[in-house]
């Protein structure tokens, strides 16, 4: 998960006083605007439930109005706090943390909770409409969708909801919707026309074998596979393509899948229009992730395709770098330009030789999420667990519960200073949450430096020689395996 606070805004309360709002972005998209005291309250509750030793340091209170430099310092500290929470599976998967983010998103949307119809599409454009609350979480909506199509409960979390953009006949996966966000609000907030689509959530094709025994799950896999082949994400020779067409005409879905599973890049996610510093700087490449590897494809001068496979077990660590370029607006204020992202990983290319590989793309965060998913699946399999069980440390597992089975509550502090008790099991926040008048006359954002988030799977690494990431937390990949020259 990639958290950033690229800028702040000055908000006005009903009594005319002002406060600083911190604009939290998750996985590259704006999520909510929160006050310091809201985050302070969240931190206190996390410490109470999980112990102070498990919660990262939180910026101290200030008893006088902050100067611009102090605001920037606090922004940076809060951003680092979120990044450290995001690197701790115990906190990142905590119901309190996720419910706080969901409630904060609803409050920031200034929209009263109401009943809505959410349209979810399969990859063949088949529409599934479900009735939900406007503030309902992604997991809750996913469970409703899967229930409506009669998918067995045990297979629900082999699938996820994704925001997808169609443009010029091409499909771009924007991001996977997380449980701490409302699909309705997230779809409404993002610029452009986007659809919510149901796709499988895993990378390891071995999971297919279990799902193919169920008729509904088999159909979901089939529909996605047909779409991936039609888009060229799966390399399909002409003779195999003819066989698949025959099977498709016969409605032989299982046989179609069994044949498709033998094809190159089956089950991979493709990212086009990337710039990579490998094999040479500024190489235009297509990136594919899946089956425990990241593949970089380049076109040679002869028109041939050169492929390089980077195994996830040989990636020591990786990071996301955010470039916060600010521009001067007409009113002389500073505004954030569209953020630029890089994903870089440190790769064991030979015995005792590590090299950083950097990929620049608008989908850098999604590539990072795919890497994270592949590593988590490796660890889950090693622990003998199932999808949606999270390996914490020393072999201890947190077993996920469906939305309706969750319990407990926490105190949510609103931006106006009032507080209310939010039930964890609620599919949405209480109506009273969004009854207040919107806070938010925006003034000039405070300039921020480029930020970096590391995928945390273990402990900190030694410092890198690269100046730009000198003070950033570098962390290991638990699935990293040492290799010898004979293995290369």
Tell me what the structure shows:
By secondary structure, the chain is of the alpha+beta class. Among the domains are: 3-109 and 410-449, Phox-like domain (PX Domain); 268-386 and 458-488, PH-domain like, CATH 2.30.29. Helices cover 27% and strands 30% of the residues. It is built from 11 helices and 22 strands. The protein has helices spanning 36-50, 68-86, 89-92, 95-109, 138-148, 183-189, 207-211, 215-231, 238-250, 253-260, 364-382; strands spanning 3-12, 18-26, 29-34, 115-121, 127-133, 159-167, 170-176, 195-200, 269-276, 283-290, 293-299, 305-311, 315-323, 326-328, 334-336, 340-350, 353-360, 389-393, 396-399, 409-413, 419-423, 451-454. The strands form 6 sheets. The chain has an 8-stranded antiparallel beta sheet with strand order 12-11-10-9-17-16-13-22, with helices on one face. Strands 5-4-8-6-7 form a 5-stranded mixed beta sheet, with helices on both faces. Strands 1-2-3 form a 3-stranded antiparallel beta sheet. α8 (215-231) packs across α10 (253-260). The protein is globular and about 75 Å long.
């Amino acid at each position: 998960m990639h958290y950033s606070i690229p800028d702040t805004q000055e908000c006005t309360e009903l009594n005319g006083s002002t406060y600083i709002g911190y604009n939290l972005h998750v996985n590259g998209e704006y999520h909510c605007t929160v006050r310091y005291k809201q985050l302070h309250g969240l931190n206190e509750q996390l410490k109470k439930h999980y112990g102070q030793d498990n919660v990262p340091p939180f910026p101290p209170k200030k008893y006088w109005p902050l100067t611009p430099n102090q605001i920037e310092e606090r922004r940076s500290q809060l951003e680092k706090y979120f990044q450290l929470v995001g690197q701790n599976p115990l906190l990142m998967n905590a119901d309190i943390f996720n419910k706080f983010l969901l409630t904060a998103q609803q409050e920031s949307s200034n929209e009263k909770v109401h009943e809505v119809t959410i349209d979810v599409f399969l990859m063949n454009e088949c529409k599934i409409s479900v009735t939900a609350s406007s503030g309902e979480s992604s997991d809750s909506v996913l469970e409703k969708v899967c229930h409506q199509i009669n998918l067995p409960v045990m297979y629900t979390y082999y699938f996820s909801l994704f925001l997808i953009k169609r443009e010029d006949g091409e499909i771009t996966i924007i991001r996977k919707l997380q449980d701490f966000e409302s699909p309705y609000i997230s779809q409404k907030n993002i610029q452009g026309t986007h659809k919510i689509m149901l796709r499988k959530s895993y990378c390891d094709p071995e999971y297919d074998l279990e799902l193919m025994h169920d008729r509904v799950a088999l159909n979901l896999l089939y529909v996605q596979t047909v779409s991936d082949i039609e888009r060229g994400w799966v390399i399909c020779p002409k003779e195999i393509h003819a066989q698949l067409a025959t099977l498709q005409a016969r409605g032989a879905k299982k046989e179609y899948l069994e044949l498709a599973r033998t094809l190159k890049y089956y089950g991979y996610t493709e990212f086009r229009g990337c710039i990579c510093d490998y094999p040479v700087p500024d190489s235009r490449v297509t990136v594919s992730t899946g089956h425990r590897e990241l593949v970089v494809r380049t076109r040679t001068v002869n028109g041939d395709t050169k492929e390089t496979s980077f195994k996830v077990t040989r990636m020591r660590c990786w990071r996301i770098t955010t470039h916060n370029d600010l521009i001067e607006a007409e009113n002389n204020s500073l505004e954030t330009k569209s953020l630029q992202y890089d994903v870089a990983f440190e790769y064991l290319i030979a015995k005792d030789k590590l090299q950083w590989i950097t990929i620049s793309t608008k989908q850098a965060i999604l590539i990072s999420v795919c890497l994270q998913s592949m590593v988590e699946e490796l660890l889950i399999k090693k622990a003998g667990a199932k999808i949606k069980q999270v390996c914490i440390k020393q072999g201890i597992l947190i077993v996920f519960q469906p939305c309706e089975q969750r319990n407990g509550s926490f105190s949510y502090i609103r931006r106006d200073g009032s507080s209310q008790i939010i039930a964890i099991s609620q599919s949405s926040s209480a109506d009273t949450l969004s009854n207040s008048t919107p806070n938010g006359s925006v003034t000039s954002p405070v300039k921020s430096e480029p930020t970096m988030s590391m995928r945390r799977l273990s402990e900190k690494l030694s410092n890198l020689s690269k100046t730009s990431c000198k003070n950033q937390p570098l962390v290991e990949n638990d699935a990293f395996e040492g290799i010898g020259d004979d293995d290369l």
